[in-house]
Amino acid sequence: MDKLRITGGRPLEGEVRVSGAKNAALPIMCAALLTERPLALANLPQLRDVSTMGKLLGQMGVGVERRDGGMTLQASEIREPTATYELVKTMRASVLVLGPLLARCGQAKVSLPGGCAIGARPVDQHVKGLEAMGATIAIEHGYMHATASRLRGARIVMDLVTVTGTENLMMAAVLAEGETVLENAAREPEVVDLARCLTAMGASIEGAGSDKIRIRGVRSLGGAEHRVMPDRIETGTYLAAAAATGGSIRLTGAAPESLEATLEKLREAGARIEINQSTISLEMSHRPDAVGVRTAPYPGFATDMQAQFMALATVARGTALITETIFENRFMHALEMQRLGADIKLEGNTAVVKGVERLQGAKVMATDLRASAGLVIAGLVAEGETVIDRIYHLDRGYEALEKKLGALGARIERVS
Ligand code: EPU
To answer: Whose CA is nearest to atom 35 of ligand 1?
Structure first.
């Protein structure tokens, strides 16, 4: 199995281009299920999760045609409205086919995702919302069997803020009869990007980006061309890496307005940040100052940036409190960072991170995608060699990671 070998201790310097957002690409690919016409996507990241989603849609009978940096999807007919356990267990975002399948075919069979390394992650809000729209959903043998003759618009107040839950219901509502209002909706930029794509396909959606989204159902949707937004988490990851190593980098093709909370925290840590349209430059000329973060739904500080900021805190001047409020088990990286010499104490959902002057390379294990990113940053900072095992997690969500870090001067290689 592949591992990543990093020889740390060198500041990141140079320029790289940000890729399209994984968490926007995945729901947008599912939107192709809503029409028999082609959906042409550009700026799609080259990632394992994107291939997995292509495979899942292909199994249903969707035509999948890859082009350089893009993909055209065409669901002329849907033969098999099913997402199997084998695929859903490798990628939870597979559950995003539920809403569109139900809207388009009146039926869907989607595996329950089960547990996951970062928490329980149930899908009760997806189910509750679809039921409010008139669907019947029975759980049998680990699968959700959903049926509906035609979904009806409804007012749905979600019990908690869920990103894929909001996306699933929005995709179901665009073809429902009448108006749907989603309250306590997720405000993440990826929800807005999906709404933009659906609107280009002919949907009527108001309020995406706020906590109240109003969708007027239409009879059918057409094809569209859509450019996937830049990945704000990839952007934040490289910025945090540059800040932790005392580097100076430029990221092009980014969407600075989508990562205000991250940029603010990096400034608080002492980084100089300049923004020029879609380019972000960061320079860190001293050891970072400790900054505490508390994860929250957008526009709060993203849980997907928590591990990277923990890595930053391990070498900061002072003590940082890192509180995780979205997922109950998203501190696995803390124990691995301790192996690199970090001083971290876990107290419930808060990590107390006392910055040390230096980390030392060691063998560590990746447990999920963003934990892996945190370990990469810690490895880039640590003196000597760090070997990260189970990097298949990274391939799910970071396009050409070694190449991009290599271009920034990091000594990093993939070893078998
Ligand atoms: N939740 C429920 N019931 C539901 C849905 C969610 O209790 O029906 C809970 C979850 O267990 C969690 C919280 O609500 O505690 C928020 O979960 P959410 O549904 O927002 O997460 P998600 O939609 O499954 C997306 C991203 C994650 C990101 C979270 C939070 C995609 C494909 N995934 O997941 O990204 O961490 O939102 O922002 O959009 C990643 O990219 O590494 C990743 C995990």
So the answer is: 304
